[in-house]
Amino acid sequence: MKTSDFYYDLPSELIAQTPIEKRDNSRLLTLDKTTGAWEHHHFYELPEFLTNKDCLILNDSRVLPARLLGHRQPGGGACEVLLLVDKGDNVWECLVRPGKKMRTGASVSFGNGELTAEIIGEVEGGNRLVRFHYEGIFLEVLEHLGKMPLPPYIKEELQDQERYQTVYSRELGSAAAPTAGLHFTKGLLEEIAHKGVGIGYVTLHVGLGTFRPVKEDDLESHEMHSEYCIISQETADLINHTKANGGRVICVGTTSCRTVESWAREDGTMEEKAGWTNIYIYPGYRFKVMDALVTNFHLPESTLIMLVSALAGRKHILAAYEEAVREQYRFFSFGDAMFIH
Fold first, then answer.
1. pLDDT recorded at residue 200
2. Count of C-beta atoms within a 10 Å radius of residue 171
3. Residues of 219-242 as b/e, b for ≥16 C-beta within 10 angstroms?
4. Backbone torsions φ then ψ of 311, nearest 5 degrees
5. 67-145 maps to which CATH number?
6. pLDDT for residue 211
7. How far apart are CA 326 and CA 199, in angstroms?
């Protein structure tokens, strides 16, 4: 298959720039993965589509306020540093701008000098290794000085940083939000649990590679980025119990999907596991665990639209996307949702 097979035309005004006032008031397009039939709903209606045999798997990763705006020293020229991977000993792999002026040996100051840094090396692909200097606890300094690393298609400044976090986020480490979960409120989760639906959590720390475009014409030639993910024994047991009782494993977001599919045995059973995954799911993939998916609308020609096409079929997905465009759904991170079942 070609990457261009996953293109669709999206008017720019449908790219959501801000979150809606109430999380679960977003629209929900339900899609039957077998027939391709769709219906229009709202997210707060999701419990109606779940039964007490099902389980919902959510990614509890929390976004780091990893975008730091500072000044180069000496000289004071403006610069930007985006934290990607914690290498230990106060060293992070980072994206930097302007790259030409941020070579090994360069120094940077953030805020009123409460956080400083020096570039100590470069890695393949152009990212920098940056050593930070500070007093106290790094994450507290980051909470004070850092900004949310919003995707490049969002031009508006985020007024409330918590709106780029899920209400159940707890494990700091993502460079981007697992956005399918942004639609849930605590009240909606309580309603789902009260219905007898099992709720389990995995952790996958979302990397910026999730926004990296597929540049190869032949989609199979694309090299997938790696992300660290964890599944607990408790969640593995929930999934195994759900499968044994004939229920559905419903993942919230492509990150939850990639986690469970990375560590599943061939027979669909699971056990506690942690590690790096670069699983690449596109049409032809046989799902071992996931039966249904709550997800947002994804960029044209992205690995994410390929993943949902693997679940529901490319033609069904593209037809549903065309319907969403016609009905003026909101797209991408702060946009509306789909339930593929």
1. 98
2. 15
3. beebebbebbbbbeeebbebbbeb
4. -80, -45
5. 2.40.10.240
6. 65
7. 34
Q: How far apart are CA 28 and CA 336, in angstroms?
A: 6
| Token code pair at residue 70 | 């500072």
Nearest of 176, 194, 119 to residue 299 by alpha carbon: 176
Question: Contact 166/178 with Cβ under 8 angstroms?
Answer: yes
CB-based contact 108:71 (threshold 8 Å): yes
- Distance from the Cα of residue 173 to its chain's centroid: 12
Cα angle: 119, vertex 223, 254; to 5 degrees: 95
Cα–Cα distances in angstroms (integers) from residue 273 to residues 196, 201, 214, in the given order: 26, 13, 29
CATH superfamily placement of domain 3-63+161-340 = QueA-like (3.40.1780.10)
What is the helix (H) or strand (E) element at residue 234, kind and residue range? helix 233-244
Mean pLDDT by 10 residues, the chain (341 residues): 96 97 98 98 98 98 94 91 91 93 95 95 92 94 91 89 96 92 98 98 88 84 91 98 98 98 95 96 97 97 96 98 98 97 98
Beta strands at 27-31 and 337-340: parallel, antiparallel or unpaired: parallel
| Distance separating alpha carbons of residues 123 and 169, to the nearest angstrom | 30
Q: Is the pTM of this model over 0.70?
A: yes
Q: Is 50 exposed, middle or buried (0-12, 13-18, 19+ CB in 10 A)?
A: buried
User: CB–CB of 33/340 below 8 Å?
Assistant: yes
Domain ranges of the chain: 3-63+161-340, 67-145
User: Residue 140: phi, psi to the nearest 5?
Assistant: -70, -40
Distance CA 175, CA 151 (A): 10
pLDDT given for residue 149 in this prediction: 87
| E strand map for the chain | 27-31, 38-42, 55-59, 61-63, 67-73, 78-88, 91-97, 107-110, 115-122, 128-134, 171-174, 198-204, 227-231, 249-252, 273-277, 292-296, 337-340
